[in-house]
Specification:
The transhydrogenation between NADH and NADP is coupled to respiration and ATP hydrolysis and functions as a proton pump across the membrane. This protein is an all-alpha fold and 99 residues long. It contains 4 helices and no strands. α3 runs antiparallel to α4. 2% of the residues are buried.
Length: 99
């Protein structure tokens, strides 16, 4: 079992931030919206993690933090769906649609 120390966690966060910035900066502008909507949806895994943390919380502070995590993760997942819906609306033909 790998023990995750604070320094190692900080190193992983910095490395993933650097890799993320490098990847996003090389994506063509036309693909930013689909990439953002997909990444927001994938962040829905945060909801699962927050629910697990909330289920194991024993103190009131832990339950409050877990509830906030579930609420923020759910908001992020819903935002991913909203962005995807708006993106798909951009590709619909305006002929015969709304006047």
């Amino acid at each position: 079992m790998i023990e995750l120390t604070g320094f190692l966690a900080l190193y992983i966060v910095m490395l993933t931030a650097f890799v993320g910035i490098e990847i996003i900066s090389r994506v063509p502008v036309i693909l930013h919206t689909p990439l953002m909507s997909g990444s927001n949806f994938v962040h829905g895994i945060v909801v699962v993690g927050a629910m697990v943390a909330l289920g194991h919380a024993e103190t009131t502070l832990g339950q409050v933090i877990g509830f906030i995590g579930v609420a923020l993760g759910a908001g992020n997942a819903v935002g991913g769906y909203v962005v995807t819906e708006r993106m798909l609306d951009m590709f619909k033909s305006s002929k015969g649609g709304k006047a």
